[in-house]
Recover the amino acids of this structure.
């Protein structure tokens, strides 16, 4: 039970990439691309009080994502992320009382569609120690959902995400902090998001970094009171506080990255740990 309590899916490496990218900028005419995958199966969730509850069915969530950045100038970088999700659930395997059957939403189902596509930019306002940047991202409601089975591929809302970041570099190490907000439509709660990261580079090829991150929403309503609360998928009041670990290896223009997350506290979120991996190219 303790292992379950400290495990939380937060999109793992995709979360890492998104938050890091809102602090760093690229040199003019530089390109960074990242193609990644994360996959997990969970059968428990954190409810609205933070307690772990069984689903009595399994949900498998696989995400493939393309992430890209381009340096317009030495101070302005534009970026986009395009996730595509493959989700499925099993039939209900809990106890039912005859002759009352299990509800319709306990029937296994599948859903394949885009997640929340994001695009925006980062502007470096001070290039010193620390480096200071501001960012503005738009998250699109490019998702799909099935309210019968409770599956959905992302938040059922559009969002604007303003934020600011600071970064210190020390020889082979770095320390950065990001603070931002999610301002959502469709009666979704506004949320405060934050990320603190410390990393160290071993030689020219390897790096390792640790993160602390959080998401705290204001009290708000979901777009509907329906079965997505049963699967804990992209609810309005999703809350978490956790730690992450990531590492990678690069050779010339190419690289590979991997990461894992754990959470100390969560609400309205799946309870599970998941691996994630991505390949990168930059010039």
């Amino acid at each position: 039970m303790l292992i379950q309590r400290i495990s939380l899916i937060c999109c793992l490496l995709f979360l890492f990439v998104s938050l890091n990218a809102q602090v760093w900028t690229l040199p003019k005419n530089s390109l960074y691309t990242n193609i990644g995958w994360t996959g997990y199966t969970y059968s428990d969730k954190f409810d609205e009080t933070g307690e772990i509850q069984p689903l009595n069915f399994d949900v498998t969530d696989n995400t493939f994502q393309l992430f890209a950045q381009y340096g317009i100038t030495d101070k302005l970088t534009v970026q986009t992320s395009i996730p595509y999700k493959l989700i499925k659930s099993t039939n209900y395997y809990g106890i039912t009382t005859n002759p009352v059957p299990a509800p319709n939403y306990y029937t296994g189902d599948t859903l394949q569609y885009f997640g929340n596509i994001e695009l925006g930019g980062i502007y470096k306002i001070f290039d010193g120690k620390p480096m200071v940047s501001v960012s503005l991202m738009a998250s699109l409601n490019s998702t799909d959902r099935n309210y019968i089975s409770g599956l959905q591929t992302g938040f059922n809302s559009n969002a604007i995400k303003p934020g600011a970041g600071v970064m210190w570099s020390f020889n082979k190490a770095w320390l950065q902090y990001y603070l931002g907000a999610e301002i959502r439509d469709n009666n979704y709660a506004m949320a405060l998001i934050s990320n603190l990261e410390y990393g160290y580079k071993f030689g020219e090829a390897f790096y390792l970094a640790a993160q602390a991150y959080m998401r705290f929403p204001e009290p708000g309503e979901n777009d509907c009171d329906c079965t997505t609360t049963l699967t804990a998928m992209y609810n309005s009041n999703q809350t978490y506080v956790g730690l992450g670990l990531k590492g990678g290896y690069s050779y010339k223009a190419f690289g590979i990255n991997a990461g894992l997350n754990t959470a100390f506290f969560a609400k309205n979120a799946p309870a599970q740990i998941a691996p994630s991996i991505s390949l990168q190219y930059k010039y």
